[in-house]
Amino acid sequence: MKKVEAVIKPFKLEDVKDALAEIGITGMTVSEVKGYGRQKGHSELYRGAEYVVDFLPKIKMEMVVGADMLEQVVNTIVEAARTGKIGDGKIFVSDIEKIIRIRTGETDIEAV
Amino acid sequence: MKKVEAVIKPFKLEDVKDALAEIGITGMTVSEVKGYGRQKGHSELYRGAEYVVDFLPKIKMEMVVGADMLEQVVNTIVEAARTGKIGDGKIFVSDIEKIIRIRTGETDIEAV
Amino acid sequence: MKKVEAVIKPFKLEDVKDALAEIGITGMTVSEVKGYGRQKGHSELYRGAEYVVDFLPKIKMEMVVGADMLEQVVNTIVEAARTGKIGDGKIFVSDIEKIIRIRTGETDIEAV
Amino acid sequence: MKRLLLVLLALPTLVFAEDTLSSGDTAWMLVATAFVMLMTPAGLALFYGGLTRSKNTLNTIGMSLGAYAVGTLVWVLVGYSIAFGDGDIIGTGKVLLSGITSESLSGTIPELLFVAFQGTFAAIAVAIASGSMIERVKFSTYMIFAALWIVAVYAPITHWAWGGGETLNFGEMDFAGGTVVHLNAGIAGFVVAMILGRRKDYGKAAIKPFSPVLVVLGAALLWFGWFGFNAGSEVAADGVAASAFLVTNVAAALGVIGWVALEWLIYKKATLVGGASGAVAGLVAITPASGSAGVEGAIIIGFIGGALGFWAVSKLKHMFKVDDSLDAFWIHGLVGIWGSIATALFIADYAMPEDYSLGSQLVAQFSAIGLTIVYSAIVTAIVFYIASALTGGGRVDDETESRGLDETTHGEKAINL
Amino acid sequence: MKRLLLVLLALPTLVFAEDTLSSGDTAWMLVATAFVMLMTPAGLALFYGGLTRSKNTLNTIGMSLGAYAVGTLVWVLVGYSIAFGDGDIIGTGKVLLSGITSESLSGTIPELLFVAFQGTFAAIAVAIASGSMIERVKFSTYMIFAALWIVAVYAPITHWAWGGGETLNFGEMDFAGGTVVHLNAGIAGFVVAMILGRRKDYGKAAIKPFSPVLVVLGAALLWFGWFGFNAGSEVAADGVAASAFLVTNVAAALGVIGWVALEWLIYKKATLVGGASGAVAGLVAITPASGSAGVEGAIIIGFIGGALGFWAVSKLKHMFKVDDSLDAFWIHGLVGIWGSIATALFIADYAMPEDYSLGSQLVAQFSAIGLTIVYSAIVTAIVFYIASALTGGGRVDDETESRGLDETTHGEKAINL
Amino acid sequence: MKRLLLVLLALPTLVFAEDTLSSGDTAWMLVATAFVMLMTPAGLALFYGGLTRSKNTLNTIGMSLGAYAVGTLVWVLVGYSIAFGDGDIIGTGKVLLSGITSESLSGTIPELLFVAFQGTFAAIAVAIASGSMIERVKFSTYMIFAALWIVAVYAPITHWAWGGGETLNFGEMDFAGGTVVHLNAGIAGFVVAMILGRRKDYGKAAIKPFSPVLVVLGAALLWFGWFGFNAGSEVAADGVAASAFLVTNVAAALGVIGWVALEWLIYKKATLVGGASGAVAGLVAITPASGSAGVEGAIIIGFIGGALGFWAVSKLKHMFKVDDSLDAFWIHGLVGIWGSIATALFIADYAMPEDYSLGSQLVAQFSAIGLTIVYSAIVTAIVFYIASALTGGGRVDDETESRGLDETTHGEKAINL
Ligand SMILES: Nc1ncnc2c1ncn2[C@@H]1O[C@H](COP(=O)(O)OP(=O)(O)O)[C@@H](O)[C@H]1O
Ligand SMILES: Nc1ncnc2c1ncn2[C@@H]1O[C@H](COP(=O)(O)OP(=O)(O)O)[C@@H](O)[C@H]1O
Ligand SMILES: Nc1ncnc2c1ncn2[C@@H]1O[C@H](COP(=O)(O)OP(=O)(O)O)[C@@H](O)[C@H]1O
């Protein structure tokens, strides 16, 4: 099984989730993160002082999928999350050794 | 060394932490995440309009443990986090190549 | 490619980020987490009742780097994040199979 | 001798009202003015700001704060003169409060205080209208609009209703501004919402309010301030003010009950946003009637006000395509119409004029409603087009809309944890 | 001639009080009523809402808002008649304010205003009691309880103390409701907390307040409103009102100091929740004494009020098994008893009645305390059982309790970032 | 006969002011006092608390709450006696309000009310100064400082300006405390900021305010309370109070406009923090002039006040090395000086004294400014060193500073989600 981590722009979350649902991915875990990259932050003001916010709000999606689904999942995310502008984010793929579903104790591919 | 990631129900955090402490696991990192899965969200109201919240609050626990402890850790979490109802969450296990303790520079198993 | 996850003290974030920027690491994803470890939490009061907060605020930095950069990155973080006091945090290294830059579709080392 | 004196002291203040300052009335009106002031940069700001998505909360609050600042300036410059100067169709002669000194009286209170009191009404009217435009109107456009609108829409309508104009005064009973303020503002909001078009994700994305805590706090402050609004409209601390106070309180309470009761029946949920909105709806409904309704009237007016508000935003609204974002029209406009009608229907025995005719009173109410709708709709549109033109278009670009105006226009975030 | 007149004007208003409306007194009472109103849906709502865990913050706020809405309705329907109608054990004759017009006076102010003023007391009393029940009582049960409690518990006790009843009036000095409102509410809360049982995780989980910021803001608004509560209880803008205002302020300040000083000594922490709670404790303590205590008395009453509150919730409370969640009993009930005793002990020279006997006054204070405890405890229990029965049990199910009532009952979240 | 009486009633209250209580004036002053009270534990607490980083928000709020509590105590103990007792350089004879009863009058209002009113000024002055010290001053040091400062700095300066002292009264026009309260507090804050030194990360880390929502709410409550501050300083409900009310409102509005307009020109952003700060700057500027300026004056005074505030904190401040964290000096001190000068420059026709000489008035203004700066600077420093010595150093250790005082000193967090 593979773990796909995608860092995307916050307002793309709904689109990506819907696109993944269409290809049958219904399990995922999402968190709010801050990203630092080529995309430059915006400036904020504090009582007449301007400062640059270099961490930008991003959404990290994590989902573990069977190896067979990997390519489809990655492509789906890329398509749904792309705006073509800098800061669209990245996808990281890594290996997962084992999955356990807490409720049932099922493991591995049945637990996805 | 293995990394154990567990996505659990928020109100189970204390129980799981205590159970892990009993088997000697005292290092872990926890974050607030939102989960999407079989468990359906609840509906919220906004001025007379009902909408479904499909991301549910979950807690993600991450801990890196020696390979020898892996099974015990997983079993402990499953036991402590289980309610038997849908949405209990999942555990993912993956490989960690290296650990460094920042304070001392110790590495690997001593650093756990 | 390698994924470096560092759990550090929140007030060290700026220093670590700057130190990494100096060695050319400009992509990273940061999140607010709570840590549980040897460092003991502080106590909070609630209307005359004292309770111990055992989860402490920490920052988790995640960055994926080429394998060649790994050592330098780890050393840089250790140096910049160390205070010498308990609770300085840890660094975990794991393997990443694949990276995709969403904007361009570039993969792997070009996508870092 | 003693007797005589006491009788004298008890004489109705009416007779000599023009001659003497009453410290009691002045005390009350100082406070009432402060109360109404609080409604805009605190009450409405939090009520609206709490209802908005977190990425636009500050922008929404800024519109209320800005409306109060700009409205106050415009009011002393020309607004008061138009509204309360001499003249039939339009008032004149008091630009920059010319001729008014600290000795000038308006009834038993200083005229400068009356100026301040009425100014708070102008400001809140245009702030109410902002609720229909949020999350997409340009901040600069809105600020210019606010200034123009008070001059061109609010001040003339006030003049006709309360300022001494005769030709366009139909004898409507509007004690504290149900038509002048609420219906007027509701119409203005609706018209601008139509011109602006809907938010890009309206009806698609789930819109989560930043914080119902702020919504309730805002509503509580509005309720508090509304005592100044309604009981202050008596411009004296007397039995009518007391009656207005009581019925205002009762109608607000019933507005809460009306809204939440229906919500509970239909959705099995009792929301705080609903309770707060119901309070506002009840308050809007009682506003024109507050000087004349009794407690039974207040119960009915408030309950129906709350229930109508709920029905309007949960059902009726969806039959229209207009994105009246925070429901300024439905809660202030529609419920304001109900209030105006109810004013003619529910009059306390003790407030009933001797020669009262329900029929002709209803005609008067509808005439004023009609005039307000037509005039406000047309002139609001004109004024908004001018404001848009002056600021290079009245709507923000798509990226700004999706990132939110707090970050883009104000460079700030509602909360930094 | 001039002299004569001035003497006349300076005559105490008492003599002719029944005959004449005073615009000064009316102005003050309009404001005082608004101040007390603000205490419930804003002051107490935020104070309690901020102390609650985030998953129940809105529910807690909703109980205050709902109590105010329902309380206002019940008060004008029957509460006022029971409390201030004619009769010895119970008042009658003023259902739906029958017979009261905008001309009716109550002393020097319109009776309708007195109705409104007293109504705000009824509402806050039952809202205070909600603090003992939060995080587990059903919202619907509480709302029905609130209505019944005002009728069956609050209105009769008020009648005995202030409404003209004689048989059950023991001559207690209770200027602004230390016994009538605070002790009464504290007892009611405690009894319901006993009936409901403890929260499942009470004493186990760390209970973090949603936000001490809201707690302080709530306390500040309570303090502000309390000027209306205490100085308003004089029902006139005079020297006694001024004295009540001053001692209220001093006692609140000393409450803060008393609580935080002890906390600092014992825990080496000075919490904001403690400071805010101390202010409330000081205010509770001075309430019955506010018409008679002088500044030295206020310093002692407030300081001990704050210190006692701290000691009660941090030590004494844990000797009982009752989960009085937000300490309504400890802060309003216990400290309220202290206030009643202190009222007899600390009387300013200028307020000291000529024939004052400390002994018999203490008997009067304890008699009223005793009656209130017994009556309130018994009838509260009865009334709560009725409310439970009408709503299919008074406590939410376990899942609702662990997920929180905001999500389950209200379908909302306190804050959406 | 009737005529005669009416003439009598209309006579200016001045003549017999010492003899008679006016219920109207008393009503207004009861409220004005409550309004000013609200400014400290609510208005300023939120304004400052919202501007602070989240890890120190509660500490900042605690300083306002604590200042109010301690200030109130110290005021009734000795502050009032020093400020308003008999004597030239220093007042005496009213320790613990000795000799004052509920019958004592101060003009047309009870003296006890005057005590309470003036006490709220003392408390807010020292709370304003706290803004310069936040995020590093020890809480205990500050609390002791607050008590000492009111006694040694605030009360004497008040005595010279308003309390009857003659030698050090230069005839400055300072209607409501521009110099006494704002300049004084600004200087005090600046001096302590210098003594404390800068925050470790000042100028390095991006300082994000906890919440602009709270900042605006705090400013709105300050604005509201300032009506009591300024119009209450007339100590009567009359035409001058009305004029003070109106110009206060106008200047605050123009302060918003002045600050935001400049910000928009320079940064193309219109911040809420800026709008709120502008309101405060406008209010500070009008304070000394509020009894004499007319509406045109208020427009100019407020606009320049806002613009000056912006320029001071965004440009001028950076030429100094002092970490005046929340700009107490720049907004209250510098803008306060502007207000004092402007008071002499902009006098409404109707308020212009017959024998007015601008030159000698300016001398009077500058003399009072100079005295206040010198005296406040020196004695504040002394007093702060004493407070530091008593608490083992006035600054927290480095770890406390970096973790924040909320966690370390108070054991609490501003918000627990
Ligand atoms: N090497 C990396 N490791 C971890 N996260 C990264 C890395 N590079 C980029 N990111 C994440 O991806 C986001 C987008 O990257 P950025 O360089 O701004 O734009 P783009 O994806 O268009 O190249 C960043 O904000 C950060 O969260
Ligand atoms: N494939 C997955 N990858 C990542 N997270 C998952 C995945 N499937 C489930 N989760 C997480 O586990 C939580 C529980 O899953 P759910 O399907 O709701 O119930 P159950 O665990 O009982 O099957 C989800 O809310 C989500 O956070
Ligand atoms: N085994 C582990 N797995 C995951 N996170 C850990 C582990 N051990 C420690 N951590 C994280 O590192 C932080 C610091 O660890 P701690 O034991 O307190 O101090 P130190 O790093 O000085 O040994 C913890 O708060 C926790 O977030």
Describe this structure in words.
The complex is a heterohexamer, with three copies of chain A (112 residues) and three copies of chain D (417 residues). Chain A has 112 residues and is α+β, with helices and mostly antiparallel strands. In chain A, 20% of the residues lie in helices and 39% in strands. Chain A has two helices and seven strands. Chain A has helices at 13-22, 70-81; strands at residues 2-8, 28-36, 43-46, 49-52, 56-65, 90-95, 98-101. The termini of chain A are close together. With 417 residues, chain D is mainly α. Chain D has a single domain (24-406), classed as Ammonium transporter fold, CATH 1.10.3430.10. In chain D, 66% of the residues lie in helices and 1% in strands. A two-stranded antiparallel sheet of chain D has the order 1-2. In chain D, β1 (105-106) and β2 (109-110) form a beta hairpin. At the D-E interface, α1, α2, α7, α8 and α9 of D face α1, α2, α3, β2 and α4 of E. β7 (98-101) of chain B pairs antiparallel with β6 of chain C, so a sheet runs across the interface. The complex binds adenosine-5'-diphosphate (3 copies). One adenosine-5'-diphosphate (ADP) sits between chains B (7, 35-39, 56, 58, 86-90) and A (27-29, 62-64, 101, 103, 112).
Key terms for this structure?
A: 112 residues, alpha+beta, Alpha-Beta Plaits, 4-stranded antiparallel sheet, two-stranded antiparallel ribbon, 2 helices, D: 417 residues, Ammonium transporter fold, 14 helices
Order of helix and strand elements from N to C terminus of chain D: HHHEEHHHHHHHHHHH
Task: Assign a percent range to the helix content of chain D.
Answer: 55-70%
Number of DSSP E strands of chain D = 2
CATH top level of chain A? Alpha Beta
Radius of gyration of chain D, taken over Cα atoms and rounded to an integer in Å: 21 Å
Strand order of the largest sheet of chain A: 2-5-1-6
Biggest chain contact: D-E, 71 and 65 residues
Query: Strand share of the residues of chain D?
Result: under 5%
Strand elements of chain A, count: 7
Assign an overall shape of chain D.
globular
- How does the major sheet of chain A shape up? 4 strands, antiparallel
> Helical stretch count of chain D?
14
**CATH fold assignment of chain D:** Ammonium transporter fold
